[in-house]
Design brief:
Blueprint (H helix, E strand, L loop, with lengths): L1 E5 L4 E9 L9 E3 L5 E7 L2 E8 L4 E7 L7 E4 L2 E4 L2 E7 L8 E2 L26 E5 L12 E11 L4 E11 L5 E12 L5 E11 L5 E3 L5 E7 L12 E4 L5 H5 L6 E8 L2 E9 L10 E3 L4 E4 L2 H4 L2 E3 L4 E12 L4 H10 L2
Antiparallel strand pairs: 1-6, 2-5, 3-4, 3-6, 4-5, 7-8, 8-9, 9-10, 11-17, 12-13, 13-14, 14-15, 15-24, 16-23, 17-22, 18-19, 19-20, 20-24, 21-22
Length: 337
């Protein structure tokens, strides 16, 4: 099966979704006209290829069942890319909130803080979720997000997926809201790796009022301590070119990038808001001390979820090393329809 891709921008090791009919379930690779092989995998009503292509160029790929020599594998909630540990989804343990972490660099350090003994904001665990006012209950700090079940795990040459259902309960065990979080992790090189995250809240137990709270994302990320602006090498910038907490905190932007150096290596984390999210583009709760969260609630007000209804958020999280252009990466994300 042959497909054609046009590069709107120069792509290097980028996941590209091509909508097309009749993609076989067992596709594992794609070959270009020069015989180069790329990871490829069926996804919904099309295929994802981890592609290289020049700006405005047109490239043909032949999909194949031939096994690609590496992929993304989830084993016991631990995620490996090309056989090397990348991160873990941690759930169902003594902690009150599931989280993703640590998230590893190529040289064995974590992009994120995962110090379970931390006294300062100890509820900031790597990549986490939280909202500080759900019908008056605080699920940003330490009310419980109870792991219920894994709803999907799949491995593949181009990407792997993991989704989990959690129930947010008060300390006395009363359920407030169902939350499903899903991650897609792509088979990219270590200089830039994406995690696409979907978060769905369902008012399963009654009407829900989400308050106008500072303590919210719903997505929250705590960067490695050496990436902090106030005590480390960090800097922050948003899609409008604003820098510093004074310019970025509370401001709406398509994306923010929090970067610096870890052991002398340029590293950073960028988060892209999705056009489908409520009140896009989001405002940002981003701090010099290392917190990084898209938050419309404090800056644009709360909202209600009637019983039986849902709201969904989508984000792309980029973990990058070396040279990185957030603008180009974001525009490629926007072009993925």
């Amino acid at each position: 099966m042959e497909i054609t891709v046009k590069g709107m921008r120069t792509l290097a090791n980028e996941p590209v979704f091509i909508k097309t009919d009749n993609v076989p379930d067992n596709i594992q690779s794609a070959f270009d006209g020069d015989g180069n092989c790329y990871p490829a995998q069926k996804y919904n009503d099309g295929v994802i290829i981890i592609a290289d292509i020049e700006r405005n160029a047109t490239k043909k790929y032949t999909l194949s069942e031939e096994k690609f020599d590496c992929g993304v594998e989830i084993d016991d909630f631990n995620i490996h890319i090309d056989g090397k540990y990348f991160t873990s989804y941690v759930c169902g343990d003594k902690n009150t909130k599931p989280y993703l972490g640590p998230v590893m660099t190529s040289f064995g350090e974590s992009f994120t803080r995962l110090d379970l003994e931390a006294k300062e904001h100890n509820h900031h665990r790597s990549v986490f979720l939280g909202i500080g006012d759900v019908n008056g209950k605080d699920f940003w700090n330490e009310n419980k997000q109870v792991f219920k079940q894994i709803t999907r795990i799949s491995n593949g040459s181009a990407f792997a997926e993991i989704s989990a259902l959690n129930v947010w309960k008060s300390d006395d065990g009363v359920p407030f809201i169902d939350e499903e979080r899903g991650f897609i992790i792509y088979n990219q090189s270590e200089n830039c790796r994406y995690i696409d995250m979907t978060i769905k809240f369902t008012a399963s137990y009654g009407d829900i009022k989400i308050g106008a709270t500072k303590e919210a994302g719903p997505l929250g990320i705590r960067v490695n301590e050496v990436l902090r602006v106030d005590k480390g090498t960090g800097r922050m910038v948003n899609s409008y070119g604003a820098e510093s907490e004074a310019e970025c905190w509370g401001r709406s932007a398509n994306w923010c990038d929090y970067s610096g150096e870890i052991n002398g290596n340029p590293c950073g984390i960028a988060v892209f808001d999705n056009e489908s999210n409520e009140r896009y583009p989001t405002a940002w709760h981003i701090r010099d001390y290392g917190l990084f969260a898209p938050n419309n609630l404090l800056f644009k007000g709360g909202f209600d979820i009637p019983v039986g209804e849902s709201i969904t958020y989508k984000y792309r999280i980029c973990f990058h090393e070396g040279e990185f252009c957030a603008k180009d990466k974001f525009l490629q994300y926007v072009n993925q329809k």
